[in-house]
């Protein structure tokens, strides 16, 4: 089946209609006031406010509203509290109460969760992705891996499928990526090697300089929001549109001691906002897509890789990479095959429930 970056692009027209119609993202029309003590949570983020952080902004606004300001989720952007690759360590020692944690930044620390970062998984839209991520994060082994760092996952952050944006001679085929230095995280790095590319791990906050200075030839990022959020579209010369390489996962994580100290009504409130926060975030992505896909073709070359070549790429770097991951990780994660099977089973069931991407207005 032909795969595209349909998680976002296929709904652009619908999103435009929704936005024009004034439909808003999920709000708190059914919200009940929650009584409780004054609590301030400090959350460690990186970069600036962007579509990716709108789930945090939603949680901040909703918890304040529902508690009359008694629950204060204080967001620290720009790595004020910690470097992006050190957020998990900060959570483990209680340096702050909550953080955005990307397991691909330190795969050795959260090995079981790395199954979500494999390339070319059958995740066809955001609704399917939410069901898959939620199910995997609830698996006892994944919960235990986070617990080793005194961390719990209390909400899900969504990221669109990855594409490449780069400088230099635009690739017209998969073969043209051979020898290119690519910012490719997690399983996408493994898949890059399959086509002769050279993967490297560059934190999001360092991608602009890496591309501008030629340290890398292309950046793998969530399509389309991340490229504009980090201003890569100001220096890039081309971008791919249909590779749908996979994605990475960066859940909303809390220090377990901070979580355990919350009154039950606050825990219930936060748990009730998980899905709504994700939908609010998706709406922000879809809104940004409308803007980017209108402007980008005017200043950069849009690259569509021939589908026959993408099918061959997926055949070489999809299931073979999954199997390699299981073989390698089974030594430290005995449940590796179980986790992959659970992921695939959940994706198949969710696809039947959500065959097409729903539009979330903002």
Can you walk through the features of this model?
It is a single chain. This protein has 362 residues and is of the alpha/beta class. The chain has helices spanning 12-21, 54-66, 87-92, 126-137, 140-147, 186-194, 207-212, 225-229, 256-260, 264-272, 274-299, 307-317, 319-329, 336-353, and strands at 39-44, 71-76, 98-100, 151-155, 162-166, 181-183, 198-200, 218-222, 238-240, 252-255, 301-303. It folds into two domains: 11-26 and 37-159 and 249-288, D-Maltodextrin-Binding Protein, domain 2 (3-Layer(aba) Sandwich); 162-246 and 291-353, 3-Layer(aba) Sandwich (D-Maltodextrin-Binding Protein, domain 2), CATH 3.40.190. The protein is built from 14 helices and eleven strands. The strands form two sheets. The protein has a six-stranded mixed beta sheet with strand order 7-6-8-5-9-11, with helices on both faces. A five-stranded mixed beta sheet has the order 2-1-3-10-4. It is globular. It starts with 11 loop residues before the first helix and ends in a 9-residue tail after the last helix.
**Spatial arrangement of strands, main beta sheet:** 7-6-8-5-9-11
Fraction of residues in helix: 40-55%
Number of domains: 2
Order of helices and strands: HEHEHEHHEEEHEHEHEEHHHEHHH
- Give the number of DSSP strands: 11
* Total of DSSP H or I helical runs spanning 4+ residues: 14
The end-to-end distance, rounded to whole angstroms, is: 31 Å
Enumerate the spans where pLDDT stays under 50 for 5 or more consecutive residues.
1-29
Instruction: Indicate the mean pLDDT.
Output: 91
Structural class: alpha/beta
- CATH architecture of the largest domain, by name, is 3-Layer(aba) Sandwich
Tell me about the biggest sheet? 6 strands, mixed
In the CATH scheme, what's the topology name of the largest domain? D-Maltodextrin-Binding Protein, domain 2
CATH class of the largest domain: Alpha Beta
In one word, what is the shape?
globular
Radius of gyration: 20 Å
CATH superfamily of the largest domain: Bacterial extracellular solute-binding protein, family 7
């Amino acid at each position: 089946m032909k795969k595209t970056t349909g998680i976002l692009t296929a709904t652009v027209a619908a999103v435009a209609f929704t936005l024009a119609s004034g439909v808003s993202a999920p709000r708190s029309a059914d919200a009940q006031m929650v009584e409780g003590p004054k609590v301030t949570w400090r959350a460690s983020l990186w970069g600036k406010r962007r579509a990716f952080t709108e789930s945090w902004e939603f949680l901040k606004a909703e918890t304040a509203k529902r508690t009359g300001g008694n629950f204060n989720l204080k967001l620290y952007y720009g790595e004020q509290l910690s470097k992006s690759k050190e957020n998990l360590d900060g959570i483990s020692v209680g340096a702050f109460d909550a953080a955005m944690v990307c397991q691909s930044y330190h795969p050795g620390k959260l090995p079981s969760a790395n199954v979500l970062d494999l390339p070319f998984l059958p995740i066809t839209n955001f609704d399917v992705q939410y069901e898959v991520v939620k199910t995997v994060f609830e698996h006892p082994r994944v919960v235990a891996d986070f617990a080793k760092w005194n961390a719990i996952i209390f909400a899900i952050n969504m990221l669109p499928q990855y594409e490449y944006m780069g400088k230099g001679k635009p690739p017209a085929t998969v073969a043209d990526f051979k020898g290119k230095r690519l910012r490719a995280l997690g399983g996408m790095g493994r898949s890059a090697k399959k086509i002769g590319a050279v993967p490297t791990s560059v934190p999001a906050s360092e991608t602009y300089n890496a591309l501008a200075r030629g340290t890398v030839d292309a950046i793998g990022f969530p399509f389309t929001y991340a490229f504009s959020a980090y201003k890569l579209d100001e220096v890039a010369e081309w971008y791919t549109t249909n590779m749908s390489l996979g994605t990475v996962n960066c859940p909303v994580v809390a220090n377990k001691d901070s979580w355990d100290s919350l009154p039950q009504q606050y825990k219930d409130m936060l748990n009730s906002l998980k899905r709504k926060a994700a939908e609010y975030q998706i709406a922000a992505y879809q809104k940004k897509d409308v803007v980017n896909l209108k402007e980008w073709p005017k200043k950069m070359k849009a690259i569509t890789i021939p589908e026959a070549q993408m099918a061959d790429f997926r055949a070489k770097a999809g299931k073979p990479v999954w199997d390699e991951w299981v073989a390698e990780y089974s030594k430290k994660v005995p449940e590796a095959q179980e986790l992959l099977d659970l992921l695939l089973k959940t994706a198949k069931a969710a696809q039947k429930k959500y065959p097409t991407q729903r539009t979330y207005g903002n």
